[in-house]
Give the backbone structure.
Amino acid sequence: MSKCGVASRSIGRAFASYAIGVGCCCAQPTNPTVPTPASALPRIGILSGWGPDVTKPVVNELARIGWVHGRTAIIVERFSTGSLDELPQLARELVQAKVDVIMAFTSTAAVAVQSATKTIPTVVLGAHDGVADGLFQSLARPGGNMTGSETLSPFLDEKRAELLRLIVPKAVNVAVIFNPRNPSSERHLKSTGDVARKLGMNITLVPVEAPKDFPAGFAAMDRSDLDAAFSYTDEVVWLMPRFEYQKARRLPMVCEYEVQVKAGCLFSYGALYSEFTKVTAQQIDKILKGARPAEMPVHIMTRYELVLNRTTARALNLDIPHEFSHRADRILD
């Protein structure tokens, strides 16, 4: 009988007689019209330091390609409440739940999974330089039990700074809001520091490791004569009411992804989330059908978008130059 990765255990539960007949043990989405015992279905684990809203598009895409919760698969979700300290325990819970594959939302969740298992196949959605974080041996051949998608987001910080200068030409004093415990922060700070020196910007660091740090972070920003702020994507930073601060202080904020622009950020430049969604679901599908993550190349995001929140721009009394508007992929009102 051929080996088919993680599917071998799933099929041991669900399709043993079928596997004997055809000599392969790869899972396939079952016929949704034929009830299958829940104990026999492949189990997909999801780990995220964010709420279910950000992972729901992946669940929907899995359903679209045949992996429907409760009918053709069991989806086991674990979410922390913006605390990185909770992730390792939640990862262990997924291991104890005997899931067949894990989807780790961003590098922080992936690091927690890595500490919990070296064998369960794992798909990392949105790694930020996963090779440097030790998640993958290389992008072409990740090795180990992990594959996924790579944003290369820290390498886009120069573009974000240049776009900021288009919309706020006199931006000199700029804050950087980040979580020092996030594995990608060091590279973000280096790339931002490099471009700041190139453009003549002064950087004020605003570290936040937990919600208790928010008041001190805002106080540090108040003490600085700031022109704008960069806000890096992170489970803790996401909870910070930074867009209310942006409005109150009329301080333009630059973010990485569209979801932050919808929440009030002035503009974002980063990978297209719909591409994350499709790629992640496809990778999970391949693993459940027998592919080995060690041999699945990490997907490097190919589509990036500039999204502007025009309502925020108006609230900040900013005039949007034609060059910026022309380059924007989408403008939200």
In short: The two ends are 57 Å apart (CA to CA). Confidence is low (pLDDT under 50) at residues 1-25. The CA atoms of residues 118 and 310 lie 46 Å apart. Residues 273-288 form the longest helix (16 residues).
